[in-house]
Amino acid sequence: MVTPFFKPNIGGVEVHLEDLCRFLVKRRHKVSVVTFQPLTVRVRAPKRERIDGVVVQRMSWFGYNWFYRLEPYPVFQFLYLFPGLLFHSLFFLLRNNGGVDAVHVHGFTASFVGRFLKPFFNVNWVVSVHTTYTLPLARRPWLGRFFAWALNGYDRVLVVSEGCVRELLPFGLDSSKVRVFTYWADHETFQPLDKVQCKEKLGLDGKFLVLFIGRLIEIKGVHVLVEAAKMVDDDIFFAFIVTGSFEDFLLMTSQKELPKNVVYIGAVDHSLLHLYYNAADVLAVPSQFAEGFARVNLEAMLCGTPVIASNVGFLPQVIDSNVGELVDPPTAENFAKRVQFYFENGERLRELSENCVRYARKRFIDVNAKVVEECYF
Questions:
Q1: What would the mean pLDDT of 329-345 be, rounded to a whole number?
Q2: Global pTM?
Q3: What whole-number distance in Å separates Cα of residue 15 and Cα of residue 11?
Q4: Do 220 and 154 sit in the same domain of this protein?
Q5: Range of the structural domain that residue 215 is part of
Q6: Does residue 36 sit in the same domain as residue 162?
Q7: Per residue in 227-279, pLDDT tens?
Q8: Which of 29, 116, 140, 244 has a 20 to 30 A CA-CA distance from 197?
Q9: Average pLDDT, the chain
Q10: What is the number of structural domains in the chain?
Q11: Residue 6 domain-assigned?
Q12: Given strand 156-159, what is the order of strands in its sheet?
């Protein structure tokens, strides 16, 4: 696997890759991951390590958090990541020439890495697209054509939604190579627990809790929820699990001090997230961009927690009125209104919670991984 980001980086794609690797190892595949040292968290990981049977090889690279700072400038973001990932992948394939059956690359930048290397290595090449690129491609049609050219060079193209296919078809994507797959999660970890006990265990007892989990970047909409917190009943609390320091959080939300009903939690290990999902009354996803699958949705629903999310990107394909609500436009005022509604209508919230569990257990199962595995052969 070739990916710019892998654990201990924090994010939905990183967790998905961990789940995928675990599935493949159980299926007796030998898996190696070529990636960078963490670029978005201040952690130094081993250059080479074996994690649950997966060999992870990391290359040092410069520029902590540059990836997100360059997000408004996709060309510079690409130029920042591409050289290192290309040469690191090339050296790995040369060292293991003849010992690799398939290469699976992840994301925009990695797709070009594989496109350039594929003519030199006769193996199966698979690429995954984990999000939508509606705005960047609409503003820069040449970028869409360039991306479609990269994807068409692969044997298989995996996408997380039909929407990804539709947005790339006008740029020349070969639909015959595309397979749509859905994320999955560990049902033993993410399952309904006693909400009162979870609140007490986390020191959040007695509170109606709105939970946010995500990166501390503007497009994730943290500032929107903080403003919404000022517009609702004082008994409604907003808890934020984010990467970044408390000072960064204040700066991002333009606050000198937080409202009394806002709780900054900071970073939380993924193994503990199920407790927070169960403690929450609703999960809020106030994304201000064309959000991808947003893995937090499926994890929350498996725990029986309804979702209030922006009506953007891939989110409408994950959430409907049976498991939550879509907010359009995704402003602070609109999020505040919907949160207040569910605070005042507990019966409706309980109904959504029961629907969430049934919906998620049926849809987000590990058999989804077989779609990915089949593309390797």
A1: 97
A2: 0.89
A3: 6
A4: no
A5: 195-363
A6: yes
A7: 999 999 999 999 999 988 899 999 999 999 999 999 999 999 888 999 999 99
A8: 244
A9: 93
A10: 2
A11: no
A12: 102-106, 124-129, 156-159, 178-180
